[in-house]
Design goal:
The chain has about 550 residues and is mainly alpha-helical. Helix content is about 70%, strand content about 0%. It has helices at about 5-20, 50-70, 75-90, 95-105, 110-125, 130-140, 145-160, 160-170, 180-190, 195-210, 215-225, 230-240, 250-255, 260-275, 280-290, 295-310, 310-325, 330-340, 345-360, 365-375, 380-395, 400-410, 415-430, 435-445, 455-465, 470-485, 485-505, 510-525, 545-550.
């Protein structure tokens, strides 16, 4: 007799669960080597959940069971516990979620996700005091994550700690994606304090930013009624709904995204990426997208994995499909530009980069790659402008600093302007010797009395040579010695550099000629001209690398 498909699945789930119980589930009965470290996570009834959800939870729990038995690393175990905790949380199985998050935090205490998710869980279950301490702990791990402070402010407001809440809301009220939620919070505080005019102002501004946040209408109606603006109050009361203002929070969005089988597949894909198993990641993304084809972020992540596994045609197909579903997705546009430039079509690539900048003028990647194209075309002023913007978006882009200083030098920027950018670069990369050699050259040769400091140049050059006695460091030492008036020592060092260059011939004849001209200047008791100094390593645009953005460019949410 044939059984309905739903019945067969339900029987399978029950069998899986029964098998797990009979085989002494390791999450409940911890192996001896984990008993002193981890908290048991008892098996619970999954009655009331959908068949797909039960299957997913049983599958993920079985993965955790296997990991415990096979003595996985603490970081891998934390990831699996956190994944299981997330599943329990989104399906309102809060006690099990709490136990899983506690284990994840014990195994990987510096991981922001588990600290943040456990704080969010405490807030969601009404444990306001615990939520405050956990949010504070999470903020120590990642102090720049602004969505956290809106949620922390909400908890302080619930605790009637209104001054603290207001300070937190004001810290986030100008943050993109958090404005309406922060104004709503400020309005709620003002309403509690019976400052009705301020409440009306805050709620009205929040609605202007996010008209779809229908929850705002009710407290706004209350405030309007309190100041006898009853007609307006009735209008807003009629519009009241349950839609809260948006909190742009990639971490919680990712948590909510694991509902259903596709979310779990995407989680498995991300774990495979961390384990450098791109083939497994590719398979997991494909499986998840088969169930959730409209998940544009997951599709872009899938495109990136296809690129890293050598399938560039598939990469283009998936990026174009992502844009067909969301035409203004800047990451898809940017990566498609990189892919196009790598294929030998820089002009079309530049069009993609410009489309990115139409939607996000501060996009670090598009600014950097477009700047490189301008640099190659000798459009130095345009290049400098885009490099500067790229650095604002990504202060760790060392190549952008070097290229920026190169374009500034070509466009005739003052030494003071170049030094300003150079010192910013040195604050980010204090050990990068190339920036130190540029600093020495400016200090030794600048005609700007505020910049010129030969003794400081000599001190830095001596430190460089002590660290690494290589020709570029020797050359700036000779320059610094000459700038302080010691032309004899400068010439002696320069003679050695000329000998090295001559011995290594055939090589760069122009460089040997330059070294000789500088030697002649030192012998004549003169500083060389700027043109005769070493060719600056910033005098050409960075090399194009297509794989770097696909491998490393950050995505706020991967699925």
């Amino acid at each position: 007799m044939n059984h309905p498909a739903g019945l067969r699945v339900a029987v399978l789930v029950c069998l899986l669960a029964w098998t797990a119980v009979c085989s002494a589930d390791a999450l409940q009965d911890l192996p001896d080597n984990w008993k002193d470290t981890l908290r048991p996570v008892p098996e619970i009834s999954l009655i009331g959940l959908t068949e797909d959800t039960r299957t997913t939870i049983v599958r993920v729990r079985a993965n955790a069971d296997t990991a415990l038995r096979e003595n996985a690393t603490p970081a891998d175990l934390a990831e699996i516990y956190g994944e299981l905790g997330g599943l329990y949380q989104v399906y309102n199985l809060y006690q099990s979620a709490e136990a899983c998050y506690e284990n994840a935090r014990r195994l990987d205490p510096g991981n922001f996700r588990w600290a943040y998710y456990s704080a969010y869980l405490a807030a969601e279950t009404g444990q306001a005091g615990l939520a405050v301490s956990r949010f504070r702990k999470a903020s120590e791990i990642r102090p720049g994550y602004k969505a956290l402070y809106v949620r922390l402010a909400d908890v302080h407001r619930d605790l009637n700690e209104l001054d603290t809440a207001v300070a937190l809301y004001r810290d986030t009220v100008n943050e993109a994606g958090l404005e309406a939620a922060s104004l709503y919070g400020l309005g709620q505080v003002a309403l509690l304090q019976r400052d009705y005019d301020s409440a009306i102002d805050y709620f009205s501004r929040a609605l202007e930013i996010e008209p779809g946040a229908t929850r705002i209408h009710y407290p706004l109606a209350q405030a309007l009624h309190a100041v006898k603006r009853n007609d307006e109050a009735r209008q807003h009361l009629a519009l009241r709904g349950d839609e809260m203002p948006t909190i742009m929070d990639p971490q919680i969005d990712s948590l909510e995204g694991i509902k259903g089988g596709a979310g779990v597949d995407f989680l498995h894909a991300m774990r495979a990426i961390k384990q450098h198993d791109n083939e497994a990641a590719k398979a997991a993304f494909a499986k998840g997208l088969a169930q959730a084809p409209d998940n544009v972020l997951a599709r872009i992540s899938y495109a990136r994995i296809l690129y890293l596994t050598g399938d560039k045609a598939g990469t283009r197909r998936e990026l174009e499909e992502a844009l067909a579903r969301q035409a203004d997705n800047t990451l898809a546009l940017f990566l498609l530009g990189v892919l196009t430039e790598e294929a030998g079509d820089p002009d079309t690539a530049a069009d993609y980069y410009r489309q990115v900048l139409q939607h996000d003028p501060a996009h670090a990647g598009a600014n950097f790659y477009l700047a490189n194209q301008y640099y190659r075309k000798d459009r130095y002023a345009d290049a400098a402008s885009h490099y500067a913007t790229a650095i604002q978006g990504d202060p760790k882009n060392r190549a952008a600093y070097m290229a920026l200083m190169g374009t500034l030098r070509v466009t005739g920027a003052t030494d003071a302007e170049i030094m300003t950018h150079l010192m910013a670069a040195l604050r980010q990369f204090p050990e990068f010797a190339v920036f130190r050699t540029l600093q020495i050259r400016l200090l030794a040769t600048s005609t700007d009395t505020d910049i010129n400091n030969p003794q400081e140049a000599l001190d830095i050059a001596r430190q460089l040579v002590e660290q690494q006695r290589i020709p570029p460091h020797q050359e700036v030492l000779a320059l610094a010695l000459a700038a302080t008036g010691d032309f004899e020592k400068a010439a002696a060092i320069q003679e050695g550099l000329v000998a090295i260059a001559a011995w290594s011939m055939p090589g760069d004849a122009a460089d040997l000629m330059r070294l000789n001209k500088t030697l002649t200047a030192y012998r004549d008791g003169k500083l060389p001209s700027v043109a005769d100094l070493a060719a600056w390593p910033i005098s050409r645009p960075p090399e194009f690398y297509g794989d770097a953005p696909f491998r490393n460019y950050p995505a706020a949410r991967p699925y």
